[in-house]
Amino acid sequence: MPLSTYRLQLSKDFGFDDAARIVPYLKSLGITHLYTSPFLKARPGSLHGYDAVDYSALNPEFGGEDAFARLSAALKSAGLGLILDFVPNHMAVGSDNAWWMDVLEWGQKSPRAASFDISWELLPYRRSGGVLLPVLGKPYGDALIAGEIALKYDAAEGSFSAWYFDHRFPINPQRYSDTIKTIVTAAHAADEPAGRALIALADENARPGLPSYAQAPALKQRLAAIDGAAPIIERGLSAYRADQQAGVNTLHRLLERQHYRLADWRLAVSGINYRRFFDINELAGLRVEDARTFRNMHELVARLIAADQLQGLRLDHIDGLLDPAQYSRRLHQLIRRIRGGERRKSFYVVVEKILADGQALPAFPDVAGTTGYEWLNTISRVLVDQAGRDKLNALWRGIAPAQQDFAAVLESAKLRVLDTIMASEFNVLVQLLSRIAAGHFTTRDYAADRLREALRLYVLEFPLYRTYVTAGGCSDNDRAIIEGTIAAARRRWQGTDVDIFKFVRDALTLDLIRHGLPYSRPRARNFALKIQQFTGPMAAKSLEDTAFYRYHALLGLNEVGGHPTLPGLSVGDFHARMAQRVAQSPHGLTATATHDTKRGEDARMRILALSELPELWAEHVAEWQRFNAGLVQSENGRRSPSAGHEYMLYQALIGAWPLTPIDKDFVSRIEAFALKAAREGKLETSWLNPDDDYERGLRDFVRAILDRERNAPFLDSFERFARRTALLGALNSLTQLVLKATMPGVPDFYQGTETWDLSLVDPNNRRPVDFASRAAALAANADADWPELTSHWRDGRIKLALTHRLLSLRNEMPALFRDGAYEPAEVAGPDRDHILAFRRFAGRDHVVVAVARHMGRMTHGGHRWPGGNWQAELKLDHKIGTGLRDALSRNGALCQSLEISRLFASLPVAVLRSR
Length: 915
What we know:
By secondary structure, this protein is of the alpha/beta class. Among the domains are: 5-89 and 288-370, TIM Barrel (Alpha-Beta Barrel); 98-277, Maltooligosyl trehalose synthase, domain 2, CATH 3.30.1590.10; 401-549, no CATH class. The chain is built from 35 helices and 27 strands. It has an eight-stranded parallel sheet. The chain has a five-stranded antiparallel sheet with strand order 21-23-24-27-26. It has a three-stranded antiparallel sheet with strand order 6-13-12, with no helix packed on it. A hairpin with a 2-residue loop joins β23 (835-842) and β24.
C-alpha cells in the first residue's frame, strides 16, 4: 500500500532511463511509489501513451525491455514501488495495430473481431456488415477520382492493400483471385511464366470462401515466392489507377467488397459504427469483457506482476467498460493466480472514476479507491470564500448574461454534443432500441423518431456519469436513478404517447426481459449495458469539455470531477467528508493536479483567492476592459474576443502569471490556451468548424494585451493586482499541500508540482520538468529554515521543503497515515472559522494538523505574509496536547503553546506529532 505516489509522464524524450535517473531524488523527497503514464507500445511519437497499439510489448520509444529492467532495478534498490496507468477501454487504430488490421482484412471472420466494439450490421450495403472508416479529407468520390486512394502490392508479404497517404487498408485475401486476374490481364502477361503462375494461383482460390483465414498466410507466401511476379503486378496495377475512368470504377468495386467503407472524416459525426474513446476516431473501444481479449490485453502486465516489477495499477476510464465490476473481479483473480494466492490487499488498484457530489464509489471488487478528483474539489470548496464567490457570480451575470444560468448552459452543451460529436454513438443506441421495440406487438408502433426523442430527453436529464446495471439485473440504487431520470424526461414530453417512457425505463433496467415477454434477450442486454458506456463520455464532453469553457464565474471551480455551482464547504462539512472517507475508501489517491486537470494546482489556488477580493477584482476588471476596449475586434455586431472570453482570459492570466517578467513563451502558452478554450466552448468557434475570423481576433487580442510597448498601462495595473493574488494563492497552496498529505488517503504528486505549478490545461502541463534543479534545491534546504524560505517564497523552495517534511512524516508514521482514525480538533477564538484543524491517530501515536483558510484579511488583501497575528487557539485534550512536537522542523522542537499566533508564526500551517 503506497504512502505517496509521484506521477511521471513518459515520452520519447523522457523514457525509462530518464525515470531511473530521478529515482534517488524521489527517494530523497519521500515518495514511496512511482506512478507512470502508460508505457505499453503506443503509436509512434505518442505524447501521452493512451493510444496503445500492442498490449504485449513495452514502448520501444521509452527504451524497451533493457531500459525498463534498469528502471526496475533502480526502483528496487531505492525501495520504491511502481504503479502503471493501464488502459483497458481502448486502443489506437491504424496500420501499426495488428489487431485492427486483421479486423479490417477479415471482418467478422477475424478472431480479433470480438475485441472491438463494432456494430457490424449498421453499415449499409454490406452483406456481412462492415466498419465505417471516416479518414478521408474530402468526400470519397473526390478522393477516388483524384487518385488519392491507391491499390498497392507488398512484394515481401505477398499482400494487397489500399493506401490513402499514410493510411493502409488491407484487401481481403478472398478477393485476391479476381484482383490477380485483373492485374495479369492489364499487364498483358498471361503468356509469361510468372503470369501463368499467377493465374494458376488465382484459379486455385477462385471458389467462394477461399482462402480461409487459416489458409491465407500460405497464399500470401506462395504469391510472394513466384519469381518475376512483382514486376507484372506493378504493371497490372494500372487497372486500378484513377488516370482512367475504368480504373476508378475497378478500384471502387474492389473497395466495395471489403469489410470496411472509406469515407469523408465528416461522416464520423453521424455514421461511425464502432465505439470510440469519447469522440476520437483513432481510439477504438475494446470489449474487455471478451475472455480472449482480456487474456491478450493483460499478457505483459501479468508478466511484470509475476516478476515483482509492478506493484499497482491505475485503471483508466473505468466507466467506459461494459461491466466495470466484472472486469475488477477478473483482474484480481488474475493477480491472485500470478501471486500464488497472496492476500488481495498486497496489490494496489485505483480507478479513474468521476464521482458526483455525495456519490459513493460503486462496489468494484478489490479496488482501493479513485484517482482522487473528488478530494481535489473538496479541498477547493473548503478554501473558497462563499460570500465573495456570490459577488463574483453577480459580476459574471453582468458580463455574460446569456451564460448566467449554469443549468441552461449545461443543457445547451449537452444538446450540442448530442447533435455533433456523440451523434454516431447515439444513433447506434436509437437503432438498438428500435429493433427491440419491433420485437413485440405491444411496442412495435413506437416509431424510431419518437424513441429517439424519448431517449434524447433521458440523456439530457441524466444526472451522473453512469449507472451499473449488469446482465444479472438492476440494483435498487440504479433503479432509483433511472426512474428519477425517466420521470424528469416524461415531464418534458410534448407527445400523447407517454407510455413510451415505460418501455424505455424497462429497457434501461432490463425489466423488459424479466416480465416473460419474448423480446430478444441479447439485444435487450446489449442496449442496457451499452447506454451506460455512452452516458459517461456524454457527461464529460458536455460538462468538462464544453460547459466549463462557457461558464466563467470562477474558473478555479471549473475542474474535473467538480461542478461550478456547488457551494463552498464549511469546516464541519470537511470533517464529515473525512470521517466518511475513513469508513469507505481510506486508501484511494488524493490528487491536486493530474495530466487531465484544467490548470495547475497553484494556478487554481490563485484564482480561488479572487473570492477573497471580489470588490477589488470587479474594479480592476472594469479598468482592464476600458484599457483593452480598442483591442477588441468587432464585425457585424460580433466581437472577438467575446465578453465572456475576455473575462475568462483575465482569470486565466491571474492563475498563470509568472513570478518573473513575461516572455514570448508565456505569450505563446496563453495564446494556445485561449484558442483551445474557445474551441472547446463551441460557441464562437469549435474544433469541428473553426471560425478563422474569430480565432484571428482572439489571437491578436492576446498578443496585444501582453505587449508592453502597446499596452503598458494595462500590464502595470495587472501586475500590481497579480502580485496580491500570487501571495494569497501561495498561502492557499500551502494549506492545500498540508491537507493533501495529512488527510485520509494517499497523496499523489503530479510531476514538478513540488514547486509552484502555474500550468494551463494539457498539453501545457506536460512540459519538461527540471529535476536537477529540484534535487539541488531539496539538498540545500533539508533543514527547512522557514523564516528564510518565507522571505523568498516566490522561488518555490518553500513548497518543496514542506512537501519533503510532510512525506518524511508519513514515512516515519506509516500505520497512522495508512489506517489511522480521523477526528476534528476544536478551535476557539474570533478567527476560528479561518482555521481547519483535525487529529489523526493510531494506537499511541497521534498527529494534530491546523491550516489557515480565507487569508485575505490576515494579509491585508494580499499585500504581506500573514505572520502570527491570529486570534484563535487549539483546544486539545490535556493528554494529547502535552508533549506535542513540531513535525515540520527537522529537530522536532517541543510545542510551547497551542495558540494559533504561535503555531502560525512562520507558516499558515502547523503539523504537530506525539513523538
